[in-house]
Specification:
Layout lengths: L2 H26 L6 H8 L3 H5 L5 H21 L9 H16 L8 H9 L5 H26 L8 H20 L6 H12 L5
Helix pairs in contact: 1-4, 4-5, 4-7, 5-7, 5-8, 5-9, 6-7, 7-8, 8-9
């Protein structure tokens, strides 16, 4: 096997392991994910599952990062090239609600679940999640501020609106996943657009 083929195969194996880890962790939580159950599902040895990452902790970190990439691809990726402003914020909200309503993860929004799981558990995973969430919150506040600059005022502070939008998204995730409410997505979209000062 050539070095190039070997590297490509290793990358595919790593991607397969991370994908399975994300799916399983969305159901049982990051800390609930065991190497043994993952290895059994993938038909691999425990050493084969952990090997590409060096440790279980790094595997979990890779799963967390991958879940964030899925969110970005679904919600913020389609906004590339669109200038900051009300239209972009509206599409951000619509994409966010669409992601919640047709979530790629079996357990619903991965970050919402991870936040509930890890917020009181100090350690590298919590530190990484905090970094991710803080970055998302800054980006969201910036989107809100840019939209407000093009809309008639007065406006609530952008950070406050970002907090409101985040809270509404978490409530929507609960209503969609736990309550199985078919009207939850439409209600969340309307509530989030109203909170952002956009047409509903």
């Amino acid at each position: 096997m050539s070095p190039r083929h070997s590297a490509a195969e290793a990358a595919r194996t790593r991607e397969r392991i991370v994908g399975a880890a994300v799916r399983d962790a969305s159901r049982v939580g990051l800390e609930g994910l065991t190497v043994g159950s993952l290895a059994q599902r993938l038909g691999m040895s425990k050493a084969g599952v952990v090997g590409p990452f060096g440790s279980r902790e790094r595997l979990l970190m890779a799963a967390l990062d991958q879940a964030c990439e899925v969110f970005r691809a679904a919600v913020t990726g389609p906004l590339e090239g669109l200038p900051p402003g009300p239209e972009r914020l509206g599409r951000f909200i619509d994409g966010w609600v669409g992601y919640l309503a047709d979530c790629p993860f079996p357990g619903g929004c991965f970050i919402t679940a991870a936040t509930s799981e890890l917020d009181g558990r100090p350690g590298p995973l919590r530190d990484r999640l905090r970094e991710i969430v803080a970055g998302h919150r800054r980006a969201l506040a910036a989107e809100v501020a840019a939209a407000q600059a093009a809309l008639p005022g007065p406006h609530r502070p952008a950070q406050e609106v970002a907090t409101t939008l985040t809270g509404l998204s978490m409530a929507a995730n609960q209503e969609i996943q736990l309550l199985d409410d078919p009207a939850a997505a439409a209600r969340a979209r309307a509530a989030m657009r109203h909170a952002a000062g956009l047409p509903v």
